[in-house]
Amino acid sequence: MEGNTKMEWWKNACVYQVYPKSFQDSNDDGIGDINGIHMRLPYLKKLGAKIIWITPMYTSPQNDNGYDIADYYNIDRLFGTMEDFDLMLEEAHLLGLKIMMDIVVNHTSTQHAWFQDILINKEKSSYYDYYIIKPGKNGNPPNNWESMFGGIGWEPLFDDYYYLHVFDKTQADLNWESESLRQDIYKMMHFWLKKGVDGFRLDVINLISKQQDFQDDSMSSPKGKRFYANGPRMHEFLKEMHEQVFKHYPCVSVGEMMSMDPQKAIDYTHPNNNEVDMIFSFQHLKVDYKDGDRWTKGQPNIKEMINILDHWQKSVNDGGGWNSLVWINHDQPRVVSRFGNEHKYHKVSAKMLATAMHLLKGTPYIYQGEEIGMLNAGFKSIDSYKDVESINIYQKRLDAGEEVSKIMEGIAYQSRDNGRTPMQWTDELGSGFSNKKPWLAIGERKDITVKDALIDEDSIFYHYQKLIQLRENNEILVYGDYNRLLVDHDYIWCYTRAYNGELWYVMNYFKDETITCDLPLPKGSTIEKIILSNYEDSDVTVIRKRIRPFESIVYKLK
Ligand code: TEU
Ligand code: CA
Q1: For position 460, what pLDDT does the model report?
Q2: From the CA of 171, which ligand is nearest?
Q3: Pairwise CA distance, residues 95 & 387, whole Å
């Protein structure tokens, strides 16, 4: 196996994602902030996470919660000041924690000074080529490309000119063909790395190279996607970024990417290619869309999900790339609501899902609240939702004549606000998040809290803590080969990890009914001991035949 066998500081680490708006409010304005994160660093340390990824906190009109950056060099007043940031960074480093900044370079807010300058100086602006600006066609937009958030992807700029926005109309796409734009971006990255941040999560990074003929598209959804995802100069741009920025610091980089497959992931992450360290891909999180429609709830196809994850493990590992291991982020519904059980098996299913992901090869990510098994928001009315995407979809479907109850069913299931409700620290009013009305309502299941999790020795929290420690203390989890057993089962995912003569056996069962199944052991091996499980009385000497709801076991074999 060539490629990713080299030891790196971020390979045995677990990343914890903080969504600052919803993490901890320190000054009672209902919005989470930097001092709130600062306050909670000891909690993250206790959990064991090494790297804290914080979603964007730069100056922004917040139309897309900070993914619309108006000034890359400043902190938004909502979250505090640059001084707050510097103090938080310093404290994190004292505790041995690393900080990963989220950086959005596919687009900026239309309030960014570059864009504003174009509004004033039009073609004469020195930033005119920083954005993708094209003349319309007979009063229509330049082509039929659509926005990811619904509707046409072009907005009138001045005279007959339009600018491209793959996301909201206040998020204008940057023109990476411009050499001076690229230099300005790299300069800004140096600014943050010199400050001491430890890496970047690069938002929708594989959209930055657009095919330059801007032709109409009738094939992809949204229209245009195949002409700008993984575009012609993608690898060239990432190599340049690596050469001019990453290579000069001991930093980690993770690219958020769409329209991915394992081969592309290998090309982006193979260390010899000098691009990024790892990528996010979300293929396994689309298995509950009904007929491919994200906004209609279907039954999760667990078998397909396991097959996808298995395929990524095998291919990316064999090809010398590196995987990120992810169930949720701020764009996804809560995983226990989705693939686990919200009631009777809340705890066991949350632990099973955690084990299934964390025992794989790659770098695991935990999204705030995942470690206590937080659930979907459970909002009933569209007025409770704040996300621009949910609101746009609601309007779009309403205009198309769909029934409100149907639309709301889809939004309750898929809205990005499911993952964005405030962190539930306690069961007091405001959940220990804030003493004021939070910017987004607290989820319906207010009984799930950090306070309870820390008291209960058997909690989901401590299970995550164990998983993190296992990875830190066992090279087999970081570097060991992955192999699937019992291929083709509908609900059981069985795999081994093997390293330097050591062999671990991982069994996870994704269903709420007891079954019997002959679990195969690799030839010639027997059980030495149990390493982790989610039921107390798991037999430690023989492999179980009766498998209980959402059961999860990790054995060491000999
Ligand atoms: O997300 C990009 C992206 O893939 C999402 O738009 C995704 O399609 C959608 O949320 C459903 O999962 C990134 C950020 O994570 C997201 O929060 C931003 O809104 C988006 O980029 C634009 O910056
Ligand atoms: Ca605040």
Answers
A1: 98
A2: 1
A3: 34
